[in-house]
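Try this one yourself first.
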């Protein structure tokens, strides 16, 4: 609810890493690991901002931020085929109106 993200290992109650205020205080409404690249995850905040984290490139801050200005995004999920090495990764956005958008991610954040 405060924009913090914690990375846990299943065998410990303490986080391996923690990023406080990663969304400048906006609640995180969805967080998903990339299906095709294990070091990448996406966070959606309550202001319809999508943050892309690539832990191999930068483990302190998101590597990109994209604002969806047209309408409030209520949730997101990812689509892709992890068993294929084509690097195709999409973000499915569900908007407040019920409209669904699919946006494809740049190859550098999708390739295995």
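Now uncover the answer:
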């Amino acid at each position: 609810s405060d924009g913090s993200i914690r990375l846990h290992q299943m065998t410990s109650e303490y986080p391996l890493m923690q990023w406080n205020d990663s969304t400048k205080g906006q609640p995180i409404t969805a967080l998903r690991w990339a299906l095709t690249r294990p070091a990448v995850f996406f966070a959606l905040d309550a202001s319809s901002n999508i943050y892309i984290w690539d832990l191999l490139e930068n483990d302190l801050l998101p590597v990109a931020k994209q604002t969806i200005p047209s309408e409030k995004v209520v949730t997101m999920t990812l689509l892709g085929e992890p068993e294929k090495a084509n690097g195709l990764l999409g973000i499915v956005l569900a908007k407040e109106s019920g409209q669904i958008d699919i946006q494809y991610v740049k190859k550098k954040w999708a390739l295995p």
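Discussion: The first strand starts at residue 5 and ends at 8. The chain has one domain: 5-109.
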